[in-house]
Amino acid sequence: MYPRGPVARTIFSSLPLFLVMTALLASTSPLSAWSPRFHEAQADLATGLIPKGMANFLRQHPLELARGARGVSSDQAPTVEDVEDQFRRILRMSEERRRPAQLVRELGTLAHMVQLLMDPSASQGMTPLRDHFQAYGDEHLPRMVVSREPFWAITAPLDPRPALLMWSATKWDRHRTLLEHFDMQTGGPKGPWDTLSVPFAQLQLSFSNGVNATANIWIQTWRAVGDQWETPRES
């Protein structure tokens, strides 16, 4: 039911859902340096780390999942309270028996927000650092891998706040480190940003942590209200 063994895959190994999501959205991507591809890839990989029933539920609506996961151009970085509110929103919508497609889109939005909470460049709206870091992320997306982290959400209390606070604190620590390698006056990097650099390490960490964080918070929603979702029957 839950993943076993090491999880370390390059993006283009690739999962079918990612290809579907990319093809469906290629003509509607926001025209800015803020690309949806990084978030779509993270959400797609997270579907391989969650219970099979929930993964099947999400995969029934790939376009809605992608729309939520990709976010919007120049979106603000969410706070812990924003992510917590989105989690509660999904619980309320589930209790109201909303359409599965609506729930999947909101789960995609939740994934996007959690991933931004792990992004060391996302301190506010589109800053020069964030713009550069996101373009850098797109450039190195094929190099990204995911390392398995503990699935604490399987047994943890159904309250995401402790994890959100921890993720936020980690993000701000990394943000301060990343700033040491970026010149805010010129809007360009300080020193090399190659695959042996601190910025690349920050990118890899934020990608892998974001995938695992997405899976864990999805598992929390599944445990809380998944029994109220219309899941496809297994053949």
How does this model look, in words?
- The protein is mainly α and 235 residues long.
- It has one domain: Orthogonal Bundle (P1 Nuclease), CATH 1.10.575.
- 55% of the residues lie in helices and 2% in strands.
- The protein is built from 9 helices and 2 strands, in the order ααααααααββα.
- The protein has helices at residues 16-25, 37-46, 52-59, 62-70, 80-95, 100-117, 128-139, 161-179, 198-225, and strands at residues 182-183, 188-189.
- Strands 1-2 form a two-stranded antiparallel ribbon.
- Strand 1 (182-183) and strand 2 (188-189) form a beta hairpin.
- Helix 1 (16-25) runs antiparallel to helix 2 and helix 2 (37-46) packs across helix 4.
- It is elongated, with a radius of gyration of 17 Å.
- The chain starts with 15 loop residues before the first helix and ends in a 10-residue tail after the last helix.
- The relative contact order is 0.18.
- Residues 1-34 have low confidence and may be disordered.
